[in-house]
Amino acid sequence: MKLFPDGVVLPTNSPHFYLVTQPSTKTTWVTRLQHRWGVRSGWQVLVIFLVFGCTGFTAMYFKRPVFTWLGVTDQTPGWIRFLIWMVTVLPAYQVFLLFYGFLFGQFTFFWNFEKRLFWANRHPISEVLTFLSSDAIHASRHSRRD
Known about the structure:
Layout: E1 2-3, E2 9-10, H1 17-20, H2 29-37, H3 42-70, H4 78-103, H5 107-119, H6 124-132, H7 135-145
Antiparallel strand pairs: 1-2
Helix pairs in contact: 3-4, 4-5
């Protein structure tokens, strides 16, 4: 006899015993990330996390000398510090991300990540191109000819 946590008792020679002892079909967070990111293994997910970590540390250490060089101090208003951060550190972070992605053999993933982040239906040119290629524009052109 086998006692399970929910109180179900099944004899070990029961034909249904194998159903209860099957491994769980729940997907892990690594498997979900693999599927979402389109990578082949859990090791790639680990390497991607490593790249994000190295990039974050590099950007953090990059900020100090840049802010010192530009004369930004604690007395500088927050909105000015934010603007300087947006103009200097944020673009540098994107470059560091591609650099570390290249070093760790994941450049293609991070290049596609960057393109999705900055160009997927957010850039004015891509919105105009999407609008021009839409069916609504083609339908209105054809209806004018009639």
